[in-house]
Structures are given as structure tokens and as C-alpha cells.
Records
---
Amino acid sequence: MGPMSGTSPASPALPYDALLLYSFGGPNEPADVVPFLRNVTAGKGIPDSRLEEVGEHYYGFGGKSPINEQNLALKAALEAELARRGIDLPVVWGNRNWAPYTADAIAELEALGAQRAVALVTSAYSSYSGCRQYREDLAVVLDGMGKLDRSGAGASTTVQFDKIRSYFNHPGFVQANTDAVLEGFEALAAKGGDPTKARLVFVTHSIPDTMEAASRVAQATYSAQHLDVGALIAERVGAALGHDVEWELAYCSRSGPPSQPWLEPDVNDLLTERAGEGLRDVVMSPIGFVSDHMEVAYDLDTEAMATATELGMTAVRAGTVGTREPFVRGLVDLMLERAAMARGEDVDQETVGTLPPFRSVCAPGCCLRRDGEPSGVPALCGADVSA
Ligand SMILES: CC1=C(CCC(=O)O)c2cc3nc(cc4[nH]c(cc5[nH]c(cc1n2)c(C)c5CCC(=O)O)c(CCC(=O)O)c4C)C(CCC(=O)O)=C3C
Ligand SMILES: [Fe+2]
């Protein structure tokens, strides 16, 4: 059913005239690695020894992170899904830590004549790292361009930005992960493992305990968000396979000094402990990551796989949501939901699991780096825009 000739139906994306695909960024070649790591760790006091260690992970992959190509693939998939639905909305890509930078994306939005953009962050969960840090980056970069009004509401004086809510509990994200885990169980059987005895281990990025505590302002903590979708995916996988699936949540990629507590167990420690108890078969599902970027390629496919092999386990790593159709369709649904909210309409915010839809406009003090420590940094897309 196409539009009637002679009419120009209002875009369902209004008031938005652009979509910002907002990501982390990563190096494209060896010479990028150190400057990239300095961007990531600016002002965080991460010692050079740790930078060199992380740099090794990148050099081992030719100095190139897969993340940029994966974001380009997601951008193309979003454009195709928008075109399929007849929605005319340009997609602009920007990153916090590598080119195209946030400032490049803002300039591109301005060149397009965009007035109000909706940001889609490539992180499904709420915490400082997955939410507020992006909101702060937008504000700080605008400020650096002389385009943040810090006298009043702390608003942008150029393109206005809204943000799509955290989507870990959106049906599209959960379905795409469920499909990927089912494929993982098939791959385990093909590898000679026993799917009826396999443990499903969900994996996400560890964060400091202090960041976990501060994330509760977002309606449920970072770990609680993962546990809620983990339970749901395991239940759906069990229903599809016709037997109960035991599951647990593990963490990867911790950094920081050993004296600072981060979320545990580490995936390697968990595998070691479970192997000692007799567990032989494992499906690892990286629900904390939206694509197979460096954390997945190194921390899971390289490190955790080596641990499992050493322990004599049969292990497979399930896919990430990447450009899977239910995920991409869900992201466009979320964009349309956000647009309807911005138009002041009553919206049915779809969720699965036991948690509510997370806020589209973050609460004051939401997802700070640490409790009780206002960052003093302005952040867009929240009720505390002036910080
Ligand atoms: C929760 C979370 C996500 C998941 C959400 C999401 O997907 O966004 C994520 C994603 C990513 N993290 C990435 C890379 C890095 N993260 C670092 C450091 C840190 N991450 C943290 C948290 C997270 N990070 C934290 C609490 C730190 C400590 C320093 C700090 O408090 O900020 C460091 C510094 C060195 C180190 O300390 O390891 C690097 C190089 C890449 C790019 C990968 C690629 O290149 O393919 C991606 C997608
Ligand atoms: Fe990280």
C-alpha cells in the first residue's frame, strides 16, 4: 500500500528529522590504537600499563577493531528498514571515542539542516557507561562548539537531541538474542556437545560496584537489567528446546585497580569453578554487547574459549544481535515510539520481562559514575539537563 498520489503523508518520525546512531568507536589501524585508548581513558587515571595491555588485544587483531564496520552495517540495516516502511529519515553516525566523532556527526546534522534528532545509543542497558556518558558527551561537545546554553536549561542551541530509551527489555532485542542462543545450542550439538546438559552463560561487560549502585536510579540496576532478560531468554530457549535450561550471568573485561571491586564472577573464573563441579557443555551468550566488537572477539572468543578448551569443555559462543531482523525492526519501532511521545501522544511502550519501560528522559542524578558524586558535567536528554 503506497501513499496516494498527490498527497504527502506526514512522516511518522516527526518531530525528528534525523536519527543519530551513537556509538563507542574503535581504531581502524595500528597507528590509531594509542590515540584511541587515550580518548577512552581521558581523565580516568587508567595507568599506561593497562593501556598497553588493552593495546595488545587490538594489535593482535591487526590494530583494527571490528566495531566501526559493524556500526556501518547497522546503519545500512536501519536505512533499509526505514526505506522498507517508507520513512524518510537520514541516519547519521557518530562516536564518543573515534572518527566520525560526535562533533563530526553534529556538523553533518547541521549540514543536513536537521533541527531535532533522536539518538540511538549502541548500548542496550542503563549505567554510566551505556547511557549517561553518551548524554554528557553530547553536551560537552556542543559546549566545545559554543552551542550549549549553560545559562538556562543547559540546552543545545543548534540541533535538539532526544534519546531512545534503554532497549534491553524491548521485544526485538530479546527475540534476536533468543534466536542467537538457539543457534548456539545447535552449534553445540554439531560440535559433539550435549545440549540437554549444557549451561547457558550470559556474559556482559563488568562495571565497578560503585557504578552498579548508582545505576539503580534508572529503575533497576545494571546487573538486575541483565538478570531480568537472562531469565526470559533462558525460559524461551528452554521452551523451544523442550527441556529446562540452567543459566547464570558472568562478566568480562574488568579493568581498574584490583583493589576496586567490580561485578563478578569473571567468565573465566566461572568456567573454572563449574568445570570443577563436572560441567562439560557451555553456551556463552554475550547479551551485554550489541555486536561482535573487541570485547567479544578478544575476551570471549579468544580468552574465555581458551579457558574452556583448557578445562576440556565443549563451548560455543552464541551470536550478538548485530543486524538481526527482529533487532533492527525493534530499533525502528523504538524510534517511532519516541517520536509519538515527543508529539505528546499516548504510547504503548512495549516491554518484555518484569521491568518497566525505562525513561526516555532520564531522571535527575540518573546513572552517575558514582553515587552522591554529581559529575558537574552537563548532560542532554535528561530532566537534569543543567547538571
Ligand atoms: C558497560 C560497558 C560497555 C558495554 C556497553 C556498550 O557496548 O557501550 C562498554 C563497551 C565498550 N568498551 C570498549 C572499549 C573500552 N572500554 C574501556 C573501559 C571501560 N569500559 C567500561 C564499561 C563498558 N564499556 C568501564 C566501566 C571501563 C573502565 C573505564 C571507565 O570507567 O570508563 C577501555 C579502556 C581500557 C580498559 O580499561 O579496558 C576500552 C578500550 C568498547 C570498544 C570495543 C572495540 O574497540 O571494539 C566498547 C563497545
Ligand atoms: Fe568498555
Note: Confidence is low (pLDDT under 50) at residues 1-7.
---
Amino acid sequence: MSIFLSSAAFANLSPNPQKKFSKNPPSCYLRISSSSLNCIKVVTQMLQSRFLRIPLSPTTLSPPKPTTTLLSLLSLARKPRSQMSSYATSSESPKLLFRQLFEKESSTYTYLLADVSHPEKPALLVDPVDKTVDRDLSLIKDLGLKLIYAINTHVHADHVTGTGLIKTKSPGVKSIISKASNAKADLFVEAGDTIPFGDLFLEVRATPGHTLGCVTYVTGDGPNQARPRMAFTGDALLIRGCGRTDFQIFTLPNDTLLYPAHDYKGFTVTTVEEEILYNPRLAKDEETFKNIMKDLNLAYPKMIDVAVPANMVCGLQDVAPKAI
Ligand SMILES: N[C@@H](CCC(=O)N[C@@H](CSS)C(=O)NCC(=O)O)C(=O)O
């Protein structure tokens, strides 16, 4: 079974002044198979749980299964290691040129993508760093590409973006960042937008947590687009980790009252200061935090298969698709 959602409904979009920038108009329909939806919903819940530190449901505290961890909410993670699929470690497309570049002081990856089958070889850089701009521009020149966009996944805290410097050195290049970041750029994107370069394109997905404006750029779905798809996650998801989320809540004033979405112990309210001092999970180093989360042995949420698909359509699952 496939579920059809308008991209606006899917991403809970407000009207977007940058729509002219999108390749696909907002009325286009995104086709999501129920298995993809399953995957999206589980990852969404996992990330919400991770970022907001909220147990997934009351049932999550029920008797543990020995191998159940937060990650095991992903059905893939339940497979024994020996049964893990051997996926490709790089994508292929007759059109796409892809390079992963590294800046060692901040351990930052910059990604270069270009449509080399297009006469102009239009290219974009994701998360360029000021210190490596010359290297990146020199590579782009060597490869005969035309840089059109310098894109950020978010407002970085550990390095200066290369986009400003790139614009002074290559005046035709447009900078892009999410509208939700509140940063300056030539173009602003939000969930559901697409960024075309030649016949290829990136999709924008909102992945806030590390910062409010964090987005993930995903390579397009369709003929000639990269297979497998590639997602540039910024700091939302790191390999075997994720970006810190303390920037969000713990930068609020100490007396800020915190009202969570759940409580399983009878508490009703807390403050930033209290949680900084006494939260038994967050007042720990990262390794201890990971172990605590792993050892929670959270069970598969009872309602997840019903709740998430329904909530993805605002609880209107029984209403004809046209009305949603
Ligand atoms: N030591 C580095 C910053 C390290 C750091 O905090 N990294 C961030 C992403 S850049 S703001 C992060 O989220 N790390 C998560 C993790 O698991 O390491 C510096 O001082 O710049």
C-alpha cells in the first residue's frame, strides 16, 4: 500500500516565499511507501526521544528484552550483526560527480556535488569551511565545474562557513541556508524545497535538534539521480552519534520552567537549573549517557504502528485523502 501526501502536508509546511526556487511546486505529491513511512516514523521518534530525552511511551518501561535498545526500534538494528545487509558504500549515477572533502582543525566534511553530464557542469558545495575554500575552489576549477551554490546545513558553532569567502572569490555563487536558521544568505530553504543543479537535485528535510534551523539535504529520487540516495545530515546525525542538543534547552535562563510531554514518576514541572544539576542522564559525559540510554532496554512502543502513520496525516487517516 502506498500513502500519498502533499509535500506540504508531509512536512507541515507554511507558505514558502522561496517556492520559485523549488523545482517541484508545492502541489506535487510525494509518494511514500508504507515501509518508508515506517522507517521515517521510527527514526522521527528515535530522534525526538534522543533530542528531547523523553522516553518513548509508558510501555517503554515494561520488562526489558535482553537485546532491546533505543536503536533496536529500527527493525534493521534488531538483526544479528551477521545478517546486516551489505549496502553499497558509494552512490552511482551517470551524471553525478561526488567528492567528500575534509577540514582537519574542526573535523568537518565538505561535500562537492555536480552534474557532469550537463553542458555547464553545475556544482554545489555543502558545508564549506573558510580555511579550505582555496582548496575547494581549486578542485572545482581543475574539474571544470561551475559552482552555483554554497550551502550550509545549519549555523555552525565550531568553524566559520566558507560561503562568504566563496562569494567574494566567485561572485556568481549563491549562498543557501534554512529559513529557520535566521542566518543571512542569498536563498532560504525549508522542508519540501528542492535545490536543482543541472538535471540533479537535492531535497530539503527539516532535522532540528542540534540547532533549530538544522536541515538535511537528500539527493533526489528519480531517473538519473544517485542510487543509493545520499543524505547530508550536518550535525543532526553523526556516524554512530548525533550532534549535541544542549545548545537548545540549556542555553535558556536557569529559571526557565520546563514542561515535558511525558512524566512517568508524578512530577509536573522542573527548571533549566534543576535539570543541569540533577538530570541523571544529561549531567553525565557522553559515553555514560550512551550507556544509560542503551541500558534502558526500551520496548517497542505498543501504539507506534498505528500512531505514527496517523500522526503523519494530523490524525486525519480516516478522512478521504483529498480532504487532508
Ligand atoms: N571540540 C570541538 C567541538 C566538538 C563539538 O561540540 N561538536 C559538536 C558539533 S560542532 S558544534 C557536536 O555536536 N558534537 C557531538 C559529539 O558527539 O561530539 C570544538 O571545540 O570546536
Note: Residues 1-74 have pLDDT under 50 and may be disordered.
---
Amino acid sequence: EVLNRGPLKDIPGPRLARCTRWYRAYFDVLCDGGFLKHLQGLHARYGPVVQIGPKEVHFSDVAAFHSIYSSRSTFTKDPALYNAFKQDLSSFGFVDPHKAKQRRDLLGPLFSRRATLDLECTIQEKVDKLVSRILSYENGGPCNLFMAFRSATLDIITSYCFAQSFDALDHPNFHHPILSAILSGVTAIWTFKYFPSLYFIADRMPGWLIHRILPVSKGYTDLFAFLSRHIDSIIADPSQLDTADHQTIYHHLLHPNLAKHDVPSRKSLLDESLTLLGAGSETVGNVVTTGVFHVTRDERISRTLRAELDQEWPDVHARMNYQALEKLPYLTAVIKESVRLAHGVVTPIPRVVGPSDAFIAGVHIPAGTVVSSGITFIHENPDIFEDPQKFWPERWLKKDGISNDNFFVPFSKGPRMCLGVNLAWCELYLLFGNTFRKVDFRIHETGLEDFSDFQEHWLPVFRRRQFQAFVKGRG
Ligand code: HEM
């Protein structure tokens, strides 16, 4: 009885979830990011609105999604989750909307479509290197494409943002320690959300002890050291920005054209660098890995895509740029379908309702309630996407098909939508276009279950086999 009182009493949900956040914590932490699967079951049982915590509600329908993440929304990021990323002074981490906007105003010009087109050659250079590294496996064993694509996207984001790179693509078998650290670090999010004091303890432990307990943390130490050195040297001698290969985030953060703004602190520069590296590498790497697997697995899709590419790009040694690739309808459909099925950000993105109460999809929600609506619930909704688990690029080409962008929301919506969306599209076109035009793949010991079975740790985490393939050059 007691549990059914309170401002959210009319919203259905498990009784235990109403009284304690440890209900959800059980699935997040002990079930290794198992809450998303559980949430699907809760919606099947209770309907489109479910109470999932004492002050937390999840919506599964499209109208609610657009209301929560609308461009006019005054809802803010939920610090309970965002503080766990420990990048609180960055574009991604700022909870305060004014600070977030200030930061977006500063960085926006570097991530505009114009800037992406101007810096296309830095992306193309890494894509060329990726293709040549993949083709070095031509007469040998299978190539680990899971790691190869992630190495490429890590090198792209670092050279785009910092005009520096870790050269992860040069590492044997693509197992650069910084990349491995990023991949395993993703799974720490739930532990830090529910046990934030662990950060306090970890900050005070000697490095050697942390590395003993958690060997992969060595990669993180290297990453912090690299970025700290880079930032310190720019702060000490800002004139070196004048001789950089191209504009970087530091040009925009330290030498802005905007008249009124606060110069970010050293900690904020470090947080921003880490944010962009994290937000920009695994996301794109996962889409390319997913897409190349699905296309290769289906002979018909593979043939159709290559026929389009071969016809529009007859000389493999010539360059085909982003703006030309964008015009190819089948390639575009393949990329959209890959983005949809790669799942991107899988954790429903939490927002705090305020400053006043709100009505979301007709439901009264008091200020202070945490609300979310998962992107996967839209992209896997069978009423919108027929046979949603099927990789089927043609769904994007049908005349009466999904022309409406309301149903394609991988980058979220509203004031906090993805800052890197233009860069992401450019990377995706160059990566998909070049690999399929220049390389033939034959899948090695990888199956559908290696992609469909993932754990939810903000991003999808794949614990089964990594995608491998035998490769052959195409003329
Ligand atoms: C396919 C690739 C990508 C997907 C699916 C994706 C998806 C998303 C989503 C859903 C959000 C909203 C998160 C939230 O509300 O907390 C987001 C935010 C963000 N993304 Fe991306 N992203 C991608 C690529 C990139 C790239 C390449 C960058 C590099 C610059 C980037 C930088 C950011 C940043 C800085 C934010 C935080 C924006 C803010 O809070 O105001 N993303 N992304």
C-alpha cells in the first residue's frame, strides 16, 4: 500500500523499483549491464510508461521521445549518471545548460559541416592507412576487423581534434594499449554510478597498485599522461598553435573568436579532450564493424553495394570524396541501416524534469523526476521498422518508407544532441565507401549472435567473439 503512494503512484511498475534505486542497480552492476533487456520485459508487462526507480520513469513510445529531447526542452542531464563519466567540465559532462551551450558555441565551428569538409583530408589519410593495413593480411590469416575499425576511428578523432595521433593503426594486430583501455573502461560506468567514492579512492592510490589490480588501467594512465603533456605544452607556449597542421579544439577553446567567454581551466581542457576521444571513437567504430559484417554476410546486399560503387567509382586508384559518396543511394541506405542496427547509445538517456512539472505523452510528471526514452525502443519498434532485427537497407529506399527523420534518432535530439554528427557522417561515408570499393571480405568464425548479444554499458559492449575476416584487394 505504502509503495503505491507518492507523486508517481499512477504509473505502473515493479513494487521494489518504486522504493529503491538498488532495484535497477542490481541489473546494471550484478547482471553486467542487463537492465535494458529487463526494461523490454517491463514494457511488455506494464505498457509504454514504467516506473523504474523511486523518482525515475521510462517511456517506450516515439511521442515521449520527442517530448523529452525536444529542442525547446528545459530538462537537464541527470548528474547521478553523468558524474560517473567523470568528465564534468566538458561539452558532454556539463549538467548546467548554460555552461553546456557556451562550450557548444566554442566547439561548434570545428564540428560544423563546413569544417568537416575542410578537414576531410585528415580523415581520408587515416582511411587510406586502414585499407592498406587491412590489405597487409591479404595472403595471411584473418584480420581482426573489430579492432582494425576501432583503431582507425581512434586515430581519426585524435588527429581531427588534436592534430596528433596515437597511431593505433600501426600497432600489431591493432591491439594498441590505449584502445584496449578505452574498450574495457566503458564497462566501469555502472560501478562508478552506484559507488562514486571509488573514484575518490582510485585518485589517491599509487599508480603501480592500480596497475597491479587492474592491468588494463595502464592504458588509461598513458592516455592521461599524453593528453596532460600536450595540454601543458600548449598552455606554456600557446604560439605553437600557429604552426599546427590544422585547427584543433585548443584553437577554439583557448583562442576563440567569441568576445565574451571564460577560458577553460586545465582540468576542463583535459575533460574535453577525453570526452571527444571517448564519444568519437567507439561509436563510429562500432557502426562500421556492424555494417561490414551484415553486408558481407548477405551476398545480395554485398553485390548491390559493390555494383553501385564500381559504377560510380571506376578507377580504384582515384579518390572519391565525401560529397560524391553521399549522393550514392544504396551506400546511404547501407550506412543508415548500419547506424540503426549498431545501437549506438543503448542506455536510455536520462533527463531531470524541471523547472516545473511536465506532461509527457499525456502523463503528468512532477519536477525532479528522472525521465528517459531509449533510442533502441524506437529503432527496434516493429510498427516503424518492419522485421526490426533484419539488416535490410532497402527499407530506406522504399517510396512509402521511412522518409521521416522522427524515427531515425541515433544522435538523439534537442539542445544536447550529438556534437559530432557532421564528423560522424563524413567518417562513415569514407570508411564504408573505401573499404567496400577496395576490399573483399570473407567472414571468419563470427556469427550474428556476436553482434546481437551485447551488454548495456551506455554503449553496447560485445563480450563474444570479435569480428574477423579473410581479405582480398579489389581492382
Ligand atoms: C555514429 C556515431 C555516433 C553516435 C551514434 C553518437 C550518438 C550520440 C548521442 C546519442 C549523444 C547524446 C548523449 C547525451 O544526451 O548524453 C551524443 C552526444 C555527444 N556526441 Fe556523439 N555520437 C556519434 C559520434 C560522435 C563523434 C564522432 C563525436 C566527436 C566529436 C561525438 C561527440 C559527442 C559529444 C561531444 C556529445 C555531447 C553533446 C552534449 O551533451 O551537448 N559523437 N552522441
Note: The first strand starts at residue 49 and ends at 53.
---
Amino acid sequence: MGSGSLRPMEQAEEGSSEEKRIQWADSFVLVYSICDRASFNILPLKIQFIKAAKEGQNQEKVPIVIVGNKRDLHHQRVVSSEEGRLLALSLDCGFYEVSAAEAYHGALMVFHGLAERIPDTKLALKKGTGIRGIVKTMSAVFARKRTDSL
Ligand SMILES: Nc1nc2c(ncn2[C@@H]2O[C@H](COP(=O)(O)OP(=O)(O)OP(=O)(O)O)[C@@H](O)[C@H]2O)c(=O)[nH]1
């Protein structure tokens, strides 16, 4: 999630392209590693940035889900589940802990949870969506990825 050491011009370009991506998106999944505190600490700022950009335009609540990844790495954990849950609660976001390396079920849960936060009217506007459509698409993507990697 970090941007490394960029020169001012690159920073400005990166900033504007991030803002463009935020304007384009309808909903957001922010992933941190439970083994990397910096990736967790940056979330409040990112979420405030997203909310300011999206909720400034209209009064709708922006659907955001926070995901703690690498749940399987117990011994390297530096961010507790409680901290993740509390942050999500305080910022009115969904929260999941998953292990992307272990199983795709967790990722499905994330997208299911995200879809539940999107107002029905928005989902109805897009062809082939709705909670079932999204979960079906995600299942197909993850199932294909698993088969490919065998
Ligand atoms: N044990 C474990 N490893 C994972 C998990 N998710 C990703 N990884 C590993 O973490 C490394 C980085 O994953 P990437 O997919 O490159 O993700 P990234 O956003 O570039 O992550 P970072 O390099 O950690 O900043 C890879 O070696 C992955 O295999 C997980 O849930 N558990």
C-alpha cells in the first residue's frame, strides 16, 4: 500500500490517479496484512480520503469492507482481530479476516459482505449483478484461478 519515495511530480500524478480510481469505483475492499502493522495503520487515512471524495458528491454511504489477510500466519500476527474489528466499527465498514493463500471461501465472504452494503437500487441498475450474480462471478474467477494453478 505504500508509495515508496517518489518525487513531487510523481506524487502529484499518483495522487490524481488514485483519486480518479476512487471516483470510478462504487465500493471498496481495503486489504491489510495482519503481519504488517504499517499496512493496518494507513487504513484510517485511506478511508477518510475515500469518504471525503465519495460522500462529498452525494449523501449515500460508501460501501467499504476492511480485510485482514494472512490469517494463517498466527506466529507473525502483529494486528489483533479485535483491533481490526474496532477500526471497522468506528469507521462504519465491514470487517473480515481471511487467508487468501489457504482458501478462496474467505474472499467469497468478503465480496458477499460488500454486496450487502451496496444499495439494491444500485445493484439493480447493473446487468447481471445482485448478490447472487456477484457471488457467482467471484466463484467462477476464484475457481478458475485455482484450476489454473494446479
Ligand atoms: N501465508 C500467506 N501468504 C500470503 C497470503 N496472501 C498472500 N500471501 C503471500 O504474500 C506475498 C505477497 O503477496 P502479493 O499477492 O504479492 O501481495 P502484495 O499486495 O504485493 O503484498 P505484500 O508484498 O505483502 O505487500 C506472496 O508471497 C503471497 O503468496 C496469505 O493469506 N497467507
Note: The mean pLDDT is 81.
